[in-house]
């Protein structure tokens, strides 16, 4: 009888292993067209290993969103460069759709205890940080670190301004729209940005179908005699160019998204001095997972309304994330001030500038080896922070497919390179946005694959 039970358990184990391997295989290959498994299906797995049945209405909404946003079609990164890849490196999918700043990991690994934050369980229990501040949940240490970094780099005026912290600059963008849109207006406030514009602007603007504001498209095409909010992203996402406002109307309000106005991406020419300026640690230092952004706001009432939006939305911002961000920003400032040329790794902006310059050199060399692609050129300017003279080194490459290739995203997808189509940025499908911020293994594979692609 004992032998019978042993045999029975062995059979059960074999069947269980087979079912799990089948599930893994299905998850890996269930979406052949998109090359990678979808976030949606991954999140709808039951504990039993069976896919949940989706409600038809939810399915339709997801399909609409998938059409509207390329990131819903690019899914999970699968570029582990494992030697177990069945067809060698040619079979590896390179996902460069998202601007995930993993490029910065190596620098921060060197810092160790210098940027480590330890908190006790009794700390940070209260909702409140500084009740005398307009943004009452903003940690004083983060205020000091932000103002010190802007002063050191010289990229933004902070004196006499109000700082509002948010869960990333995306929340701050929505807070700014709320603060700038009159509640008693004749209709929703028009929101515009010059194409190619950041692909998430239309989605975030219209996501809640608010009666306060609506996406009105390309600023170059806006000619209504109505109030409007213009988003000025400089350097621009996706093409990397320096931007100014376009509409020039007398009924407009400007929001300046300066996420990339840092010396590893662009020459710093002067301190930015605008009414509302948005920044984020995700692109300044690479800590996207901390979800911390800040707005530098001139008008107190606008800052109060933005704070109210975040208060209603999330009742503040995580103190742990703020304290971690403050520690990192302060370390960046200290590294710039005490920088020794013999120890370049202590200066974050020196390190990251050299890395970005080297990557742009390599991708231009790769593109120049083929007639299928082209990249924009940028004028040389002198950076007031570093003293270097250089052109833009954007976080994204605005790659164009030349000749008869009309859908660049689909063309590259067939060669297992995942990018985001120009159509999501209000531009031609001959363009794609390619992240320059990936890990070295992925970037190296990209620069090797591009010249080898044939029509």
TrEMBL record:
One of its GO terms (biological process) is amino acid metabolic process. Keywords: Aminotransferase, Pyridoxal phosphate, Transferase. PANTHER family: BIFUNCTIONAL ASPARTATE AMINOTRANSFERASE AND GLUTAMATE/ASPARTATE-PREPHENATE AMINOTRANSFERASE-RELATED, TRYPTOPHAN AMINOTRANSFERASE-RELATED PROTEIN 2. Residues 94-452 form the Alliinase C-terminal domain. The keyword Hydrolase does not apply. It holds the Pfam family Alliinase_C. GO terms for molecular function: carbon-sulfur lyase activity; transaminase activity. Its EC number is 2.6.1.-. Its cofactor is pyridoxal 5'-phosphate. This is Transaminase. It is an enzyme of class 2 (transferase). CDD domains: AAT_like.
């Amino acid at each position: 009888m004992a032998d019978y039970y042993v045999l029975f358990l062995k059979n059960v184990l074999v069947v269980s292993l087979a079912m799990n391997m089948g599930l893994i295989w299905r998850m890996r290959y269930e979406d052949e067209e998109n090359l990678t498994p979808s976030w949606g299906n991954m999140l709808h797995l039951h504990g039993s290993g069976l896919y949940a049945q989706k409600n038809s209405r939810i399915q339709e909404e997801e399909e609409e969103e998938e059409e509207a946003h390329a990131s819903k079609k690019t899914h999970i990164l699968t570029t582990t460069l494992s030697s177990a890849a069945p067809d060698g490196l040619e079979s590896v999918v390179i996902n460069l759709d998202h601007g995930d700043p993993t490029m910065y990991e190596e620098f921060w690994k060197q810092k160790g205890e210098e940027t480590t934050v330890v908190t006790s369980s009794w700390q940070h229990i209260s909702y409140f940080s500084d009740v005398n501040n307009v943004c009452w949940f903003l940690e004083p240490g983060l205020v000091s670190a932000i103002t010190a970094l802007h002063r050191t780099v010289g990229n933004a005026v902070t004196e006499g301004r109000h700082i509002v912290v948010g869960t990333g600059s995306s929340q701050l963008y929505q807070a700014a729209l709320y603060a700038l849109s009159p509640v008693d207006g004749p209709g929703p406030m028009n929101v515009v940005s010059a194409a190619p514009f950041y692909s998430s602007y239309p989605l975030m603007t219209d996501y809640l179908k608010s009666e306060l504001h609506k996406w009105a498209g390309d600023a170059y095409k806006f000619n209504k005699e109505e109030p409007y909010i213009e988003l000025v992203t400089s350097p621009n996402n996706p093409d990397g160019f320096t931007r100014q406002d376009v509409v020039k109307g007398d009924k407009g309000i400007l929001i300046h998204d300066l996420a990339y106005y840092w010396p590893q991406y662009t020459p710093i020419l002067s301190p930015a001095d605008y009414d509302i300026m948005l920044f984020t640690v995700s692109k300044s230092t690479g800590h996207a997972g901390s979800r911390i952004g800040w707005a530098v706001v001139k008008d107190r009432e606008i800052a109060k309304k933005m704070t109210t939006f975040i208060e209603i939305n999330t009742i503040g911002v995580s103190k742990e994330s703020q304290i971690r961000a403050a520690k990192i920003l302060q370390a960046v400032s200290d590294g710039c001030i005490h920088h020794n040329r013999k120890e370049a790794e202590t200066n974050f902006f020196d390190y990251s500038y050299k890395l970005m310059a080297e990557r742009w050199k390599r991708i231009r060399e790769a593109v120049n080896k083929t007639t299928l692609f082209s990249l924009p050129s940028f004028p040389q300017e002198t950076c007031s922070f570093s003293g270097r003279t250089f052109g833009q080194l954007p976080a994204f490459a605005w790659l164009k497919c030349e000749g008869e290739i009309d859908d660049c995203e689909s063309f590259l997808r067939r060669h297992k390179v995942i990018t985001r189509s120009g159509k999501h940025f209000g531009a031609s499908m001959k363009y794609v946005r390619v992240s320059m911020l990936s890990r070295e293994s992925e970037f190296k594979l990209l620069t090797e694959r591009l010249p080898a692609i044939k029509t």
